[in-house]
């Protein structure tokens, strides 16, 4: 059981997104296999041989040798062709018989007996001795086919050897894909929002289009631009838009394409990559996921990775070494700038780092408009509400949300996407897949209902907490229930009051179970993990502890960077003990505060829990109505809040205090 308020302050952002669908086109027809013509020729020859053999025996009756002797004795045989080598006998009758013109038989090899020859002579049968006539086509096949097979085998072996040798010789060739001026067709107009980043990177486009304007004044364009941002924010799309706007060759490659099992291959591919770019200058080199080869040198357990470091050294030399690369602009993308080598980030190489963070509310709306173009959206869908309900989502997340909503509409048999589909899609993305196969008993269901009611009551009553959007006790994802909060407005930093209220909301489920049942369950596991992390960051990173003071110790470094091989820390054991005490103090004080809050508003807790047991899911407005009705305060725009000093008041929609309902 968990809730989903933000754990750390988000940052304002501009997020690009693609307006066109760049799915790859279907490929052309596959080429015919090389062995197909030979197979066709072989089949034709076989059919010809079988046909010729059948034609020779057509309309002939096969009889035994004894019948042949009887036919000769009866005087019905007109002529005979005898092959003493094979003993084959072929002949004709004096009178045509129905369905046959002749006969065939098998006699003795070498020659017929004297009595048989005398009988043939007596009956006046024309006897012709024939020798075996070789079929010229069959004879040619007997000579040509084995010879062709032998020659074909040697040709195949030669080509295979050449291919292996060519693969070895070309292993140092770069695997980059070169796009001409017509590709890619993406431009800045295909990117939703993202105006500040467009302005920042427009200088690169202007330099590639009109380099003389910069040279006249003595200005030097940045040689490298590093796009930094979370996954799914459109860093690759930005690079494609730059290439489309500049109209110059665009050479794309990923960081993993440089690495190979052979030492020195990565450096060779870097050299070949820049040689290819120099031939087509002005040009753009785009390296996606550059952190795979640009990590700090000498980092990690046991030292660095020699092959990766050689590749990085060669890239550093090519970007700004002894030989300059004129007319080449390098664009790289990564979501891990903290692991990159400092030599790669210095001026002269990657001069600029452009942040591509998560989108703001207005930018999310622009991105949703892009994805709404090819969808049938119903009239009850308000794009502003959808955008407000998706804080922290990237452009890729928004695209997935719209697609999930369309899938839900198809499952329901609708012809357009409705508001209900977006609600289900958002729950699917944020909360996980519903698990109807998980059946809780009555005791577990009651514990879950009061647990989620504790979260919901705390979120509604606390002044600085985000409003409740939805509460459910249906098993969702890995949790048996879920309380979802959505902020009313974009926040870019959080104060101590907000964080304390967040901790109260996280502890609300555990405190509610203890208050009602006198015990705790394992359902608060994830809440405690998240609450402890927030409290620890308040003490150790954000300076929100009076005992620790204005000091930030930060998190422990990652082992693979080589900065913290044995998990050392830069503070003493005494300070660590103080930090642990302060974390415990913050959590225990907020637990006491939450217990007082829920004890004071026990009627509202019971009302929400009973409604969850009856309906299984409630939205934020229903939670507010139940709490206000149970406590006895004005409903319809009024909100009961508990201030940071512990006092209670009821405020209207504009935040003005109003009086409680008189008894």
Topology:
Blueprint: E1 2-3, H1 36-56, E2 60-62, H2 65-74, E3 77-83, E4 88-97, E5 100-106, H3 114-122, E6 126-129, H4 136-169, E7 177-179, H5 195-209, H6 211-217, E8 224-228, H7 235-246, E9 250-254, H8 265-279, E10 283-288, H9 306-320, E11 328-334, H10 342-345, E12 352-355, H11 361-372, H12 383-388, H13 395-411, H14 419-430, H15 442-461, E13 468-472, E14 482-485, H16 496-517, H17 525-540, H18 573-600, H19 602-615, E15 617-619, H20 620-631, E16 639-642, E17 648-651, E18 657-658
Parallel strand pairs: 1-14, 2-5, 3-6, 8-11, 8-12, 9-10, 10-11
Antiparallel strand pairs: 3-4, 4-5, 7-9, 13-14, 13-15, 16-17, 17-18
What is the first-to-last residue Cα distance? 37 Å
Q: Roughly what percent helix?
A: 40-55%
- Report the total helices: 20
Oligomeric composition of the shown chains: single chain
What is the residue-averaged pLDDT?
A: 76
- The CATH class label of the largest domain is Mainly Alpha
Radius of gyration: 43 Å
Strand content: 5-15%
So, the CATH homologous superfamily of the largest domain? Peptidase M41
Tell me the domain tally: 4
Low-pLDDT residue spans: 5-28, 168-172, 557-566, 634-638, 658-663
Annotated CATH architecture of the largest domain: Up-down Bundle
Number of strands: 18
How is the largest sheet built, in terms of strand order?
A: 7-9-10-11-8-12
CATH topology of the largest domain: Methane Monooxygenase Hydroxylase, Chain G, domain 1
Question: For the report, how would you describe the main beta sheet?
Answer: 6 strands, mixed
Category by helix and strand content: alpha/beta
Coarse morphology? elongated
């Amino acid at each position: 059981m968990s809730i989903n308020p933000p754990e750390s302050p988000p940052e304002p952002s501009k997020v690009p997104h693609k307006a066109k669908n760049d799915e790859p086109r279907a490929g052309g027809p596959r080429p015919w296999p090389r062995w197909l013509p030979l197979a066709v020729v072989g089949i034709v020859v076989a059919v010809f041989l079988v046909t010729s053999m059948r034609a020779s025996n057509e309309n002939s009756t096969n009889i035994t040798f004894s019948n042949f002797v009887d036919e000769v004795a009866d005087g019905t045989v007109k002529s005979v062709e005898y092959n003493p080598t094979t003993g084959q006998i072929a002949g004709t009758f004096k009178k045509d018989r129905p369905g046959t013109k002749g006969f065939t038989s098998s006699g003795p090899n070498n020659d017929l007996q004297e009595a048989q020859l005398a009988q043939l002579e007596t009956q006046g049968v024309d006897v012709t001795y024939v020798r075996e006539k070789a079929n010229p086509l069959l004879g040619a096949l007997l000579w040509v086919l084995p010879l062709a097979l032998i020659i074909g085998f040697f040709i195949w072996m030669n080509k295979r050897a050449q291919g292996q040798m060519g693969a070895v010789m070309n292993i140092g060739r770069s695997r980059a894909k070169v796009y001409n001026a017509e590709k890619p067709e993406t431009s800045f107009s295909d990117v939703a929002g993202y105006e500040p980043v467009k302005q920042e990177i427009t200088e690169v486009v202007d330099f590639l289009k009109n380099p003389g304007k910069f040279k006249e004044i003595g200005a030097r364009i940045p040689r490298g631009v590093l796009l930094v941002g979370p996954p799914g924010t459109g860093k690759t799309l930005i690079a494609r838009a730059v290439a489309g706007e500049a109209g110059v060759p665009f050479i794309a490659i990923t960081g993993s394409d440089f690495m190979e099992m052979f030492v020195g291959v990565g450096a060779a591919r870097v050299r070949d990559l820049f040689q290819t770019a120099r031939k087509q200058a002005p040009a753009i080199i785009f390296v996606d996921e550059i952190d795979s080869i640009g990590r700090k040198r000498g980092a990690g357990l046991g030292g660095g990775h020699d092959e990766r470091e050689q590749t990085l050294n060669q890239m550093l030399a090519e970007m700004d070494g002894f030989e300059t690369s004129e007319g080449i602009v390098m664009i790289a993308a990564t979501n891990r700038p903290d692991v990159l080598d400092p030599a790669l980030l210095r001026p002269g190489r990657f001069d600029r780092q452009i942040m591509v963070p998560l989108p703001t509310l207005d930018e999310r709306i622009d991105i949703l408009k892009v994805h709404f173009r090819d969808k049938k959206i119903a009239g009850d869908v308000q794009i502003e509400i959808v955008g407000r309900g998706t804080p922290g989502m990237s452009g890729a997340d928004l695209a997935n949300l719209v697609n999930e909503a369309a899938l839900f509409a198809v499952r329901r048999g609708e012809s357009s996407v409705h508001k209900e589909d977006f609600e289900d899609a958002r729950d699917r993305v944020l909360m996980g897949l519903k698990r109807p196969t998980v059946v809780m008993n009555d005791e577990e269901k009651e514990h879950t209902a009061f647990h989620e009611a504790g979260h919901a009551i705390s979120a509604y009553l606390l002044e600085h907490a985000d409003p409740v959007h939805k509460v459910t006790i249906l098993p969702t994802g890995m949790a048996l229930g879920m309380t979802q909060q959505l902020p009313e407005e974009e926040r870019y930093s959080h104060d101590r009051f907000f964080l304390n209220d967040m901790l109260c909301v996280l502890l609300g489920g555990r405190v509610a179970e203890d208050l009602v049942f006198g015990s705790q369950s394992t359902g608060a596991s994830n809440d405690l993990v998240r609450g402890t992390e927030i409290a620890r960051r308040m003490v150790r990173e954000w300076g929100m502890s009076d005992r620790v003071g204005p000091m930030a110790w930060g998190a422990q470094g990652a082992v693979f960077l080589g900065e913290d091989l044995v998990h050392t820390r830069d503070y003493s054991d005494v300070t660590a003990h103080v930090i642990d005490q302060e974390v415990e103090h913050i959590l225990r004080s907020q637990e006491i505060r939450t217990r007082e809050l829920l004890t004071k508003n026990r009627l509202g807790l019971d009302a929400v829990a009973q409604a969850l047991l009856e309906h299984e899911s409630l939205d934020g407005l229903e939670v507010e109505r139940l709490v206000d009705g149970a406590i006895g305060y004005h409903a319809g725009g009024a909100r009961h809040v508990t201030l940071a000093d512990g006092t209670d008041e009821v405020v209207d929609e504009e935040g003005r205090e109003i009086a409680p309902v008189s008894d």
